Amino acid sequence: MEEYEIIIIGAGPAGLSAGIYAGRQNSKTLLIDKGLTGGLGLEVPAMENYPGYEHINGMKLIEHTKNQCEQYCQINEMENIESITKEENGSFIINTDKDSYHTQNIILATGSKHRQLNVLGEDEFKGRGVSYCATCDGMFFKNRKVLVIGGGNSAAQESIFLTNLGCDVQIVHRRDELRAEKYLTDVLDKKGINVIWNSVVKEIKGSQTVESVILEKTDGSIIEVETDALFVAIGDLPQNELAISLGVKLDDSGYIITDKQQKTNVEHVYAAGDITGGIKQWVVACGEGAVASSIAFNERDL
Predict the structure, then answer these.
(1) 236: which residues sit within 8 A by CB, 6+ positions away?
(2) Is 168 a catalytic residue?
(3) Residue 227 to residue 161: CA distance in whole angstroms
(4) Of 29, 137, 160, 172, which has the fewest beta carbons less than 10 angstroms from its beta carbon?
(5) 218 and 149, same structural domain?
């Protein structure tokens, strides 16, 4: 069983930043992700607020960061963690579907996953018109009608991206005002992207693929809107299963509670990135990852 000083779980922006900082401190570090490096960061179509880049997409930024991280620590992709056992001396044994590892410190950077609508037809048409990633699937719907569901930054960014691809985009939002930042709403206005206000999805209909969506207005009226695709951008849910198994305290929304040093209530377990809730921004996740690995290094012998 190989020994590591720090094992980071989750290879998104927070985990990669933690890996860079841990490795530069000469800690023997392993970064594990059940999927591909990047997580939901791969799906960000465009960013204009990440320091050092006036404009960059998530896939490209992940590529840069992964290349940098690999200089300092080992990255294991497509490796699922099955259990974590805390030993009497406070260290941990991590069992995956491929191997077992021993470590003094764990950084949980497990992030979040897409929130679903949980309506009739959603599961049936996944991959056949229902999508949670404009970057992944947008090109399939060039010059076709699409709906984006949501009212925050993600919904606005995906709508702009899809419009730039040549899609005929409408936004469906349950309120009468978007929650997205002003610079994004200004772009929506400039591009003439229509918003269907005060509406929620009740059903997704079609034969082989999506053909229409049933919407319920706040006044109780029902409308049917023809569309070739539905892009869902209504927020995320914390991936907290490992945290729960370790006895880590969560807030009422299921996000990990940490102090300013990214410590959890479990000794030698830290958390960083979207799994901690708060402001879900790339630069925030990177900062938390840097803090978590720095503190873990400083306290490794205490």
Answers:
(1) 40, 112, 113, 114, 115, 274, 280
(2) no
(3) 17
(4) 137
(5) yes
Among the listed residues 265, 2, 253, the one whose alpha carbon sits nearest the alpha carbon of residue 108:
265
Cα dist. 233→50, 139, 154, 168 in Å?
A: 21, 17, 6, 17
Show the low-confidence residues of the chain (pLDDT under 50). 302
Do 209 and 281 lie in one domain? The reply is no
Q: Which domain holds residue 180?
A: 116-232
Calculate the CA 140 to chain-centre distance.
22
CATH number (domain holding residue 226)? 3.50.50.60
Residues 14 and 145 in one domain: no
Question: Does residue 137 have an active-site annotation?
Answer: yes
Give the separation between CA 63 and CA 79, rounded to whole angstroms: 19
Q: 267 and 190 share a domain?
A: no
Q: Quote the pTM value.
A: 0.84
Judge whether 136 counts as a catalytic residue.
yes
Looking at residue 299, what is its pLDDT? 81
Q: How far apart are CA 203 and CA 230, in angstroms?
A: 11
**Domain total of the chain:** 2
